[in-house]
What we know:
By secondary structure, the protein is mainly α.
Amino acid sequence: MTSPSGPTSVVSAAPAAVKERLASLDAFRGFDILTMVFVNYIAGMKAIPFILRHASAEMDTFTLTDVVFPGFLFIVGVSIPLALAKRGAEGRTGLALVGHVLVRTLALLFLGVVLVNEDRFSAAAAGIGKDLWYFLATLAVFALWAVVPKGAAPAKRRLHLALKIAAAVLLLALVVVFRGQGEDGRVTWLQTSWWGILGMIGWTYLAGCLLYLASRGDRAVLAGAVGLMTALYIGSRHGALDFLGPINGFLNIGSLFGSHSAIVAAGMLAGTLFLPGKDIAAPRTRVRFLAVLGTALLLAGYVLRPLHGFSKIGGTESYCLATAGICCLVFLLVFVVLDIYKKGKKAAAFILPAGRNPLLAYLLPGVIGDAAALLGGVLHIDLWRIIWPFAETGGLAGILNAAVMTGVVLILTTLLGRAGLMLKL
């Protein structure tokens, strides 16, 4: 972070300042993750308004639904300075911080690959039904990454450790027996046709954290990185990375470390506002910075639009910059309402559990679907059609059905969180 006296190390931030809890951060994240659940439920439905559908690859535009994923990447960026500063204040060294980042990245990549292979799963080749495989795998993930409460009694800690060991063994066994089948009929193991939402978050999180640690949070460097990442994507579109051959094909460097990582870098710029420092502590200064940052990103997106147009599917530089700007301005609005004027906190309280436990909220729809399929098989009824009667017809009824299911996910996230199930990679 740059201040009038120069850069401030992320690992030496004052603990008291790092503990500042932003209601706007949790509320924005909660709203975004629930919106992601909702749009996933209505995906593929008939008679859905265009604003709630993903724009196709050939369209030079983006919809409300297309802003959801950039919103989460932006919040990942905002959270990085706060999380790294908190760990630095606890005495973590630079090497320990890098180790923590790598472990989280690997966990996200693993989950992303597992989820993107769901459509390829072959029950015949694996010797286990897809619904049962994914239900058990998700339960193992819950146990493996459940947070052990601080101050827990030794007996409870031993129980948590035993559960984590059992979950790790189960997950390893499930991964070993996994088999998928491609369009050509060939039976294969887990593949990375693409990294999935969680995998993309993992790669961009890695890029953001390493950049932040290397630059020590200097805002000028972070701002420059947004430009360099944008240039990286543009160069990749015009063959500048072709010399990397299969490496570029495997990672899609221009998209992951270029345009999408630029959103995370923009979020980190915003996140530096909430670290210790007299030059940024004043609410007015924070508001002005966020307003300028959001407007600049939005304008940059429109200025670069003639190059490759707005495209979520292509992850174009103009789409990523414009949506990052929109997310920054929305975050500003939420920050002003909740953290400056202290208004609407009661109204926003219902979405906070999803914001504080986002991985659980993201995975629960899959658990609900798998559990419904398994129970329906035992009872010999189509239970999923009972709780999801308008999936095929869509329209207003389908939208309301999706809203109800999203509400169920929120309720379960809240109840499980109160029961002590908090997931943290």
